Amino acid sequence: MLADMLLAASPAHPPAAVLAGRLHVVLVHFPIALVFSALMLEMVSAARGRGLSPAGVPCLALGALGAVAAAASGLLNANLEQGDPGPTLLTHRTLGLVAAGLAAIALICRLWLERSAATRAGPRLATRASLLLAAIGVGAAGHFGGSVTHGEQYLTGPLRDMLGIAPPAGPAPAPTRPAPVITAPASGDGGGAVDFAREVWPILDQWCIDCHGDAVRKGRLRLDSRAAVLAGGKNGPSIKPGDAAGSLFMKRILGEGGEPRMPLDEEPLTEDEIAALRRWIDAGAPWPSPAR
Questions:
Q1: Tens-place pLDDT, residues 255-285
Q2: Is residue 164 within 8 Å of residue 255, measured between CB atoms?
Q3: Beta bridge partners of 152
Q4: Which of 11, 59, 123, 197 is the most exposed place for a label (fewest CB within 10 A)?
Q5: SS3 at position 273
């Protein structure tokens, strides 16, 4: 809560804080490898009827520290750039925190065993069980993180195909997005009826939904339904039906007002795409229900 208040009071986030948050994508890979390595060493040692593996200590220590660092940078990134999380991102965040806690608990148990020179099977089993739970937590958090960036079926889809398991009931995974098909009006930006499904939704789907959809809601903004578009995000309503020039949505696409141009880190929209969005908003932002 205090972090949110401090960040909200600042007109611009400090670059160092933004960098620390974005390092999450780098830090998150270390605990996955290290915690699983520690688990594998303990499994081999247990299979051979030996005590706890000496090599597992540094792996677990670095893995636990990495998990805590990754969780901290992930929370910072979420506060700075993500806004309200969707269900997938929220699950990823929760599992990341749980995994970091379990890895720390496993490390504490392991160090306590070594310090107390305990040799009973019970304490060794507890240490290995906590390490197993930490590895499961890290793996699950990584899976949902991949789902946020690559889609729900990125990992489980090929695995089901390999094992011959039918996909769960529900809508099929979205196919690779085709390039938007834009039909420009006969003259100027203001003429011609707007075909939302053909002209507008493909643009939103290709360039906007990854960062402003159900899974990720940067700036607390969703652009996957008319109600969400009208509600807007932390900066207020994104569009003014009938007034494209006065709509924040168009200003961000055009890079006006000293703000970064959208879509961020992508090529600018084409003139035809911009014209289609402008005509759509000027026409009152119609959104036929079958579109989404």
A1: 887 778 888 778 888 998 989 999 999 988 8
A2: no
A3: none
A4: 11
A5: helix
